[in-house]
Amino acid sequence: MDSRPLISVVDDDESVRESLPDLLQEFGFAVAAFASAEEFLAFDRLAETRCLILDVAMPGMSGPDLQRELLQRRQQVPIVFITAHADQSVFPRLIELGAVACLRKPFSDTQLREAVDAALDGRPPKEG
Amino acid sequence: MESELERVVDVLPGLVWTALPDGQIDFLSRRWSDYTGLGTGESLGHGWQAAVHPQDLPRLLAGWRGDSRTSEPVEAQVRLRRRDGKYRWFLFRAQPSADASGRIVKWSGLGSDIDDRIQAEQALRASERRFRLIVDGLPVLLSTATPDGELDQANRHYLEYFGATLEELKAREAVHALHPDDRERVLPIRRAAIEAGRPYEIECRRRRADGVYRWFHLRAFPLRDAEGNVALWYRLQIDIEDQKRAEALLTGEKRLLEMVANGHPMPDILEALCRFVESMVSGCYCSIVLVDPSGTKLQETIAPSLAAEFNDAVRGWPIDRLGGPCQTVARDNVQVIMSDVASDDRWRNSWRGLAQKHGLRSCWSTPIVSQAGKVLGTFALYWSEPGNPNALQLELIEQFTNIASIAIERAQRDAALRRSEARLAEAERELQRTIDALPILVATYRPDGSRIFVNRTWQDYTGLPFDVAIDSERTTIVHPEDGARIAQEWEKSLAAGVPFEAEMRLRRADGEYRWHAVRRVPARDESGAIARWYSVGADIEERRRAEQALRQSEARLSEAERQLRVTLDTIPVMVWRGAANGYVQQLNQRWFEYTGTTPEQMRGRRWKQCVHPDDLERHVQTGTDYVAAGMPIDSEARLRRFDGEYRRFLFRPAAARDENGDIVGWYGTIIDIEDRKRAEEKVVEAERELQRTIDHIPVLVATYRPDGSRLYVNQRVRESTDRSAAGDSQTPPVSIHPDDAELAEGKWRACVASGEPFEVEHRIRMGDGTYRWHLTRRVPLRDDTGKIIRWYGVGYDIEDRKRAEEQLRRSEALLAKAQRLSLTGSFSFHPATNDAMWSEEVYRIYEVEPGTRATLAMIRSRYHPEDLHLLEEQIAKMRSGATDLDYEHRLLMPDGSIKHVHMVAQGHRGEGGSSIEYIGAVQDVTQRRVAEEGLRRSEAFLAKAQRLSLTGSFSFYSATGEFTWSDELYRIFEFEQGTPISLELVATRYHPEDRHVMDEVAEGIRRELPDFDYEHRLLMPNGTVKHIRVVAHGTADNERGGIEYFGAVQDVTQRLVAEEELRRSEAYLAEAQKLSHTGSWVVDYVNRKPIYSSEEHHRLFGFDPANGMPPWREWMDRIDPEDRPRTKELVERSSREKTDLEMDYRICHPDGTVRYVHDVGHPVLNEAGEVVEFVGTSVDVTQRRLAEDALEKARSELARVTRVMSLGALTASIAHEVNQPLSGIITNASTCLRMLAADPPNIEGARMTAQRTIRDGNRAADVITRLRALFSKKAAATETVDLNEATREVLALVFSDMLRNKIFLRTEIDDDHPLLVTGDRVQLQQVILNLVRNAVEAMSEVDDRPRHLLVRADAQDLGHARLLVKDAGVGLDAQAMERLFDAFYTTKEDGMGIGLSVSRSIIENHGGRLWAEPNDGPGATFSFSIPRLAENATAERTGEDVWPPNLNSEQQVMRNS
């Protein structure tokens, strides 16, 4: 049994799915990557996920859709949203629904680390 | 009886003559001579031919010769020259008389003046020709119908519309071509109106020859004959199809756009759109399919008239899979016209089955494209019959596709709006922080002055919390000494809305008051009302302290001033001292002594109280002037002495200057000049007295300088002459009559030069505007050396003398003329000496050179040999001393002609009775004699002549009421020959409506009027109406009393009928024009002169028809100045090419209204083939134009609004695409660094992540590349494309757009030789479309020249195909050229610019180039060139060699890339 905390990454962009898990592993986490929300919902270790890094815009079920779905299933997974869109107008709404942080692509490793740490600690991250 | 006949011939309105069988005239009535001015003698035989118009003579003679052999009456119309040289038309009728053996022995004839009739007939013919031209030219359907409604006549347009001849149309049913839906409504109205004979109006659809129904407005009204029965129907049908459609479209579009603007849900708008389209295009089913935001599948269908099953089948269908036409349209962004579902093999799948199942047989689908070029959905029309769209339908499709695009984009825009509102809130918070951080006091107030907000600095300074501070500002913050003043000024600013500025002390938190400069300005909303006041306060405490120090040093200066004052007071004249600005600061003691005032009383500017009120203003002005000029100027003014008396003073100022020469103050002395002034005035008064004397002399007096210019005139000149001419000394004070002016002035100049006295008579214009003759004399005054120093001139009125002279001259002339006119000369004769004196006229009668000595021998030589004995008898009588002579004799002239002369003389015995002198008169009575002769002979054929000229004659004796009628008169009145005639009998023939004429005639006879000339109608027993003209002349019968009238009666029915017809056809025309808003006109093109303009044409141009024909210039001035050059050019071209004229222009009325006019004109050529006239019509198309304009405006307004969002959407998309790989790169790089920093370093892991970094970098580059081909949804396909064909397709797509923009499109495309290239057809077409659209837009503002657009596809060289788009638009400047292809550069205020940049990358992807050049004339040319498909290897290589194309133009623009 892996003792490292499990972090899941859901992004339709392949380069993110390849690069992000490597970095998170360097941080010392266990990582599972998924190309769509549907795949993640089918994940048998969903309940073990300590933090979900989730893309906002995806074909099919979008990031916010998945957030709502998890709320309805009473699956309390801390979520860090990432997006390539310049438009940040959706962020306040996502935070209001319980997301831990919203990061705009591209983001630095420090930003990512702080967001993930905050998710694991159950407290809001510093402004930035 | 003979004299009576003579009178009849005189009044007979015709020329009477007889001729011998050989055609020689042997008698002519006196009217011939009166009319032609030819003597009877010279006209007899063949002499009369001189009076016949040369063009008519051969015809007349030929007719004569031909007719001489018959015994029938003959007639001919010829022009006869009147004595004044003018020709008039005459009808000559001749009747032969034969002797017992049937041989013609004599011709007798009558020529009657028919010029008026001929003129009227010609006018009628010309008018009818014009009428026909105009009627045929009217762009309306114009027809007449029989009383029961059957078609009778129709204009050209009518026949062309129905595509049939008049005969074919007559054969058809009355309601042919009426739309079946309209019949039930229209026919009963029509039938009822025709039966009732009353006008009717209908709107209905009529089928054109090509089967298309168009809406018409039909108006019909009956024309009635004299009895009031309907004679014919006049029907006018105006094509209102365009107007109807434009109105419906406008209403529909407006409603839809309003729904868009009001934010209705998109599906509602689209459903309304579908229903509207279905109402406009009957028989179609409209469908709108939306593409989902990702652009990958069809989202929803809105088609209210299609079955749900059909609509549902489309939902969620991926657009890259084969489905129906709408998928293809959405995928390829091209229009698909599927004219027959059954035979079209492109969609042979389940869709076809489904469509056929629902009875859909054809489908035309068009992409709905956003402003950024993205496909938002499709707009499709389905039909239950196969078919292709016509031009109109294509235009509608384009319009509604556009509206759909607006509605969809609006929905998307609303979403974007919500996002930007959130950003705005953030910006406001940022602003708040900034304001709080400012080191000044900031506050805002409501319009009523209550405070809304203060910034952090304010709170820190006052130490008051935000909410506490609000209502206690004045009492707690402002210093108590400033409070009231500040409050008052602030109230004032609030009330007036002007900025408030004040300095005030404000209390700091620690209790110290510090000075602040506070400024408050109002901010206004769009309506101009004040919404907020913004206030800032800055600390100025330190500045205030510096000012305080300055004030103290100034106080020390005033002490020095006091010292100076003492000095001035000791000077013995009045002196004053002033500041640099001229204000009096000090007056010395003398002033106070003179005026009796004290320094306290003179404080400030009160010294003015001592100046005489009448002088004050001028005096003060002088002061202002010299201070402004910096130069002393003297001034005079009266000053009041202490005892109240005014004396005059000279004020003389002087400037005080500092070392730099700048004026620092003014000093002045005030000197008493009263006594000097009085002496001067006495001299002036003496001069004035002399002046008065001269002024009252009753002649005109003037003096002049040696150079002749006027120095002085007396009052008389000024009073009695034309006041308007009173000028300076160079122009005469009197207005000399223009006819005399040159002579008078020339002579005056000569006299001035020579020194001779001047004398001339001329007319002078008096004060009342009349001219009076004057004698003007001017003599020089010389000094001792003989040099002229003055000229003195006087003018006398000699008008009365002049008049007397004129009178005498005239009466002498009159006498001579009277003799000439009466052919009477006077003479005196002394039988004792044979001395004779002749007047001029006697010489003329004897045809002897005037002045020749009159001798008995000469008189004898002129006497007719047979009458010589008369002369001898008379001479014998004279010698025997007879006192009265009276006899007639003949003269034989050298040319063989004979004159009859009447001689009357009286003898007077001289003083002493020794000799006798005869004074007498000689009158030439030849004409009278000839006339008498002629009259005797004319009796025989007079009756015949009357018959020929339809003229009867009569005599009437007023005392007895007795009539004598000629035979012809019986015929005209249709009475039995010989019936006794009375006024009562004549009255029975009078037309009932003309009875009043009879009464007037009876009244005239009672009053013994000498002349009658009147026309009236006769009503014959059989009901026919005749028009007659009666001319009569009465002479008093001295023996019997009463008046005897002789008269002629002429039947003028024919002439009047012609005139009436003319008037009637003109009335019809005017009515038709009024109904159709059509004016007609005729213009003399050679002389630029309007010949004819109908009333409606007058009204169209804003002229009152009652004011007659305005000149050419005024017509032209009414045309809009912008349209004038173009209309002029069109008219000139039409004249040059002799083609019909067609043009549109605007007319500006003086009251500012503008009418749009459509003109059609037809040139009229003369025999030489030159254009001499234009005949045409002008139609008022204002209503139609305004409807079109409103539609266009609404469309473009909304289109512009929708573009605003496109730019943001595009940049967001680019950012997203680039951010994705960038994210990967940064993450990988971070990972890589961490792996390398680990202990031990994870080299293998680092290498892998570095490799991924490189890959993601490449991916980012790919994104950029892909963005370049943004317009294309698929990879650039390579297929063989015919550039000619591709261009044609694009042009077909935008054709309606061009029509609407009035573009003259010229294509140079060789359809017979394909221009093959390799590439993506759709992309290339998008480039062409982009270039064409740009060109159309570039010309949208062009109104002063034709909007020419040239599109040319050709082979530039062996290896390249070129497409060229040349416009005549706004053109490009050098700066624009450089940036033209930058992604976001545009010269259009509402443009996007992305089009050119993308076009360029598409062309470069095809291995070609896209460039722009300015034209020689207006506009620009855009071209691209791409490699041609190689026909063989050689060509391809050649193509390589010559690339890039040799563009040697210096102005070419090409960016290397």
Rg of chain A, alpha carbons: 13 Å
Total number of helices of chain A: 5
Main beta-sheet strand count, sense and barrel state of chain B: 6 strands, antiparallel
Beta-strand segment tally of chain A: 5
Q: Name the overall outline of chain A.
A: globular
Number of helices of chain B: 44
Low-pLDDT regions of chain A: none
Biggest sheet statistics of chain A: 5 strands, parallel
Q: CATH topology of chain A, anyone?
A: Rossmann fold
Biggest sheet strand line-up of chain A? 2-1-3-4-5
Please state the second-level CATH architecture of chain A: 3-Layer(aba) Sandwich
Nearest-angstrom radius of gyration of chain B? Answer: 54 Å
Protein model, in words:
The complex is a heterodimer of chains A (128) and B (1457). Chain A has 128 residues and is an alpha/beta fold. Chain A has 5 helices and 5 strands, in the order βαβαβαβαβα. Chain A has a single domain, classed as Rossmann fold (3-Layer(aba) Sandwich), CATH 3.40.50.2300. In chain A, strands 2-1-3-4-5 form a 5-stranded parallel β-sheet. Chain B is α+β, with helices and mostly antiparallel strands and 1457 residues long. In chain B, helix 1 (2-11) packs across helix 29 (926-948) and helix 9 runs antiparallel to helix 10 (266-280). Chain B is flat, with a radius of gyration of 54 Å. A 6-stranded antiparallel β-sheet of chain B has the order 27-26-31-30-29-28. Chain B contains 44 helices and 53 strands. Chains A and B meet through helix 1 of A and helix 14, helix 38 and helix 39 of B.
